[in-house]
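Re-run requested by the PI after the first attempt was lost when the workstation crashed. Everything re-entered from the original request form. Ligand of interest: FE2/S2 (inorganic) cluster.
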Amino acid sequence: MRVVFLRIGYELLLGCIEQKTGPDFMTFTIEFQPNGIRLECANSINGLDAARQAGIELISVCGGEGTCGKCVVQLLSDADEHPPSDADKKHITINKIEQGFRLACQLTINKNAKIYIPDGSIIEGQILQTDGEDIFQNVCPSVKKTTLKLSQANLQDLISDFSRIKNELNNKDLSTDLNTLRKLPPLLRENDWHIDIWTRGNEVFHATPHQKTRSIGLAVDVGSTKIACYLMDLANGRTLTAKGTPNPQIAFGEDIMARLGYAMQGTSQAEELFHLTIHAINQTALEMCQRIGLTPEDIDDICIVGNTAMHHFFLNLPTGSLAVSPFVPVTTDPLYPSAKELGINSKPGAGVYAPPVIAGFIGSDHLAFLYAAGFGEDSRVRLGIDIGTNTEIALQVKGRIVSVSTASGPAFEGAHIKYGMRAANGAIEHVHISENGEISLQVIGDQAPIGICGSGILDAVAQMRVREILNHRGRIDKSASNVKLDKQGKPEFTLAYGEKPITLSQTDVDQILLAKGAIRAGIDILMDHLGIDLSNIEEIVIAGAFGSYMLPEHAMGIGMLPSIPLEHIKTIGNAAGTGARMMVASTNSRRQTEDLTKRIEYLELTTYKDFDMFYARGIKA
Ligand code: FES
């Protein structure tokens, strides 16, 4: 089990410790199983907060409102002292409640307790996509390492140390900072005037004794669900290693609006999200460096992309204006903070490139995706879709590129679906229903299913539609085989029997249809806006983890994607990560991406004429 110590609640934790110095404090201990982490506290504490403080990232889609039912834990001690809340009764079976299962967010703990965290309640072990195309052309990083062997100063050659470097490089415009100047004299004299310097444009930002090291770049795609990091060799643009990690902000809600709401509670809450993000980047970069024998000090340059909320969080920009209408960002310009300013561990003087964002709900990840997918480079009619909690869609027609963002929700990530889960071991990822009703399942990790992830949900709904278990209005046929009625008399379709039956209920199907309806409405509105129809679409490019695992024919089957020949659909993995890698390896890519930004028109869906009609049409099964 992976355990990460988070900054979350650090102040609160300090508060606990400080209170122990008073004369009458009474502390109690919460022990979390199976990892054995103990948390000592002086004051009563909410179960979700306690887990956070112990560094355990519980899934909390609703941000602790008691509505998602995902933060289930089991009280191993004194369960009878915690009567189940209405939310517990709604999400947990009576049998389980009797065994001590409760929603962590509904618990108040004020004495010694032992709590078991089931695997399915923690954010880990997910398939976190870091792949994507590796593009090696056009390598010209913004930082350059140069080895110098200088002639030493003597009575006949009295020029200053830094002027000696300027002369050697034949660049009179070269400048540097005080830190580098302070280190320079001993560095030159102790190393026989043989040193390495790092420059960014005309600025020398670092100097060391000469050694054979590579110039390394760090590319980061901060997604709402996961953070994908890549270490790059800046000499050739190759990816040396990659690693994905769950975005720890999820502990504050999977929904971006829940996190924005948390940040609006105050400066310390907003800074908590900033520090969490930076901590996760630092930790992941450190693990990648160790994997290939480097240290974070070897990182010379960094590029970070993300949706606009993530962009504001990792730059520690105020997010209040993103949370309320009309949802405008603080800035859409490219930014160049120092790594030190953001707290990212790297070479002293290293910089960070944060590419432009497009609008409140269209960030630099969308831009990076379109750049990596070659939008703007040809005249084909192309649709680009990055499916997530917010799905960004771009349509390119006759030199115009128009982008929209649609709130597709987290249903394809397994949230709000009774047996929904992320793509981890035990998740049903593909479903086939034969003509005679036989169900075949593909389960990640080849084990008994414990839930169903986005691609499995999509398959199940598409196959139910094909076999007419689902009608065109999206209703489950109560008389179909494998369909039974729940306690409220609503039909549910059983996908897997066994110790843990996995079902898809009418409510689940409704959630999927709403999600796919939002995506389809976005596509149809873009086509309407640019005056084209299906027959004009020459290519659909799909990015993102869910997009890579789903079967496009099933996405077309339920009407999420327009029906076009399968060979015209291309999936490209984490294209935002690919775009970030291109930008860390090349200043030309940065310039081209900024040029592309100027060509992207943002279209606000909710104010589009007949939006309701497009949406209603989109959700039909
Ligand atoms: S039900 Fe507890 S976080 Fe959602």
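Saved to the shared folder this time. The pocket of FE2/S2 (inorganic) cluster is lined by residues 48, 60-62, 64-71, 103, 105 (CB under 6 Å).
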